[in-house]
Automatic annotation (TrEMBL):
UniProt KW keywords: 4Fe-4S, ATP-binding, Cytoplasm, Iron, Iron-sulfur, Kinase, Metal-binding, Nucleotide-binding, Phosphoprotein, Transferase, Two-component regulatory system
Species of the source: Flavilitoribacter nigricans (strain ATCC 23147 / DSM 23189 / NBRC 102662 / NCIMB 1420 / SS-2) (Lewinella nigricans)
Name of this chain's protein: Oxygen sensor histidine kinase NreB
Gene3D superfamilies, A to Z: 1.20.5.1930, Histidine kinase-like ATPase, C-terminal domain, PAS domain
Domain Histidine kinase: 243-330
EC number: 2.7.13.3
Broad class of the protein's primary localization: cytoplasm
Keyword Metal-binding: yes
Localization of this protein: Cytoplasm
Function recorded in the entry: Member of the two-component regulatory system NreB/NreC involved in the control of dissimilatory nitrate/nitrite reduction in response to oxygen. NreB functions as a direct oxygen sensor histidine kinase which is autophosphorylated, in the absence of oxygen, probably at the conserved histidine residue, and transfers its phosphate group probably to a conserved aspartate residue of NreC. NreB/NreC activates the expression of the nitrate (narGHJI) and nitrite (nir) reductase operons, as well as the putative nitrate transporter gene narT.
Length: 330
């Protein structure tokens, strides 16, 4: 029979060779065993000896979500957990907690590299989507636009003749054709603008969001406010596009669903980040209910913002309006 020290050393050497961070704690949450990887991934600036036999949660003030679930396991009988946490050093960690005899074992995996690949894939997809939108916008603008203009010119040219020489029925037909042409021209312009807002490329985010708000400000709709705080210069084009698309979707949502009396869109420049905040005083909704069958607008914004390294926070409650805060580091 080996001594308990020998067994302990044996276990320590096994876990020190593991590709994951590993920590075992006892029933009161004190660390029994851990490897260097765990300390490194969790950014605990202590040596193993300083942590052994101490309460694990005391070393996790910078990882509140993890501290919270560990605490629930130790004090409130929660059994297992899986959490994703981003460390202050911006590592993406997946942490699993499993109950074992007289305690629990945590495994910590650094998934930063996988996340980076996911982010790159998503970015490539969004880039492709934007390129396609741009192509369509150009196609409409350069291909269909001139044809419509030329139809209009031809109709205008014969207008006087038609009114002077033909029966009221033909005049009506002629007028209807002109009206339809006008309306299809307007629709196409609006579609091409939605596809690729020229104001964004030419004049930047502030100007593009401003014209977006003006476009939707109607006399009988909710009061729409656009507030800019700080000096906002031109930003990196992918950030401008991500924020514009977010503003566009959030404004559409507020107008479509919220039954709001006020909607505000704020753009705030901090020293090293930019914040877009869209708020309405409408009916709100239950965040937990919105899943796969409930539209993809918000989910797309969240992923897109996260792919630029930013944060997306949605706060809403039934009858208490909706607020989305997006912050992108510059
Ligand atoms: N500002 C808002 N006020 C009230 N409900 C909202 C608001 N924004 C979103 N919702 C609700 O959340 C759902 C999901 O929105 P979204 O992801 O944009 O998808 P979609 O617009 O395609 O339905 C909407 O169907 C709506 O029920
Ligand atoms: Mg939507």
């Amino acid at each position: 029979m080996k001594s308990s020290t020998e067994i302990y050393d044996f276990l320590s050497s096994i876990i020190s060779a593991a590709p994951y961070g590993i920590i075992a704690v006892d029933m009161i949450g004190e660390v029994l065993l851990l490897n260097e990887q765990a300390l490194r991934y969790l950014e605990i600036g202590h040596s193993p000896n300083e942590v052994i036999e101490k309460k694990l949660v005391d070393f996790l003030p910078h990882l509140p979500q993890l501290a919270n679930v560990v605490n629930q396991c130790i004090n409130f009988g929660r059994e297992n957990f899986d959490v994703s946490e981003t460390s202050p050093g911006r590592r993406h960690l997946t942490i699993r907690g499993r109950q074992i005899l007289n305690g629990m074992i945590l495994t910590i995996e650094d998934v930063t590299a996988t996340k980076e690949v996911e982010r790159a894939t998503l970015n490539a997809m969004l880039d492709g989507q934007e390129k396609e939108r741009r192509r369509w916008a150009q196609e409409i603008h350069d291909g269909i636009g001139p044809v419509l203009s030329s139809i209009k010119m031809n109709l205008d040219e014969v207008q006087e003749e038609v009114y002077a020489k033909s029966s009221p029925r033909y005049q009506d037909n002629f007028e209807t054709a002109q009206e339809l042409l006008k309306s299809v021209t307007r629709d196409l312009r609006s579609i091409s603008h939605d596809l690729m807002p020229s104001a964004l490329e030419d004049f930047g985010l502030v100007s593009a969001l401003d014209s977006l708000c003006k476009k939707f400000q109607t006399g009988d709709g909710p009061a729409l406010q656009f507030i800019v705080t700080g000096e906002i210069q031109r930003l990196n084009s992918s950030i401008e596009l991500a924020l514009y698309r977010a503003g566009q979707e959030l404004l559409h949502n507020a107008l479509k669903y919220a039954k709001a009396t006020r909607i505000s869109l704020q753009l705030i420049k901090h020293r090293d980040s930019i914040v877009l905040m869209v708020e309405d005083d409408g009916i709100g909704f239950n965040k937990n209910q919105f899943g796969a069958d409930n539209g993809i607008g918000l989910k797309n914004i969240a992923t897109r913002i996260q792919s630029t390294g930013g944060d997306f926070v949605l706060e809403t409650e039934e009858a208490h309006g909706t607020m989305v805060i997006i912050e992108i580091p510059l």
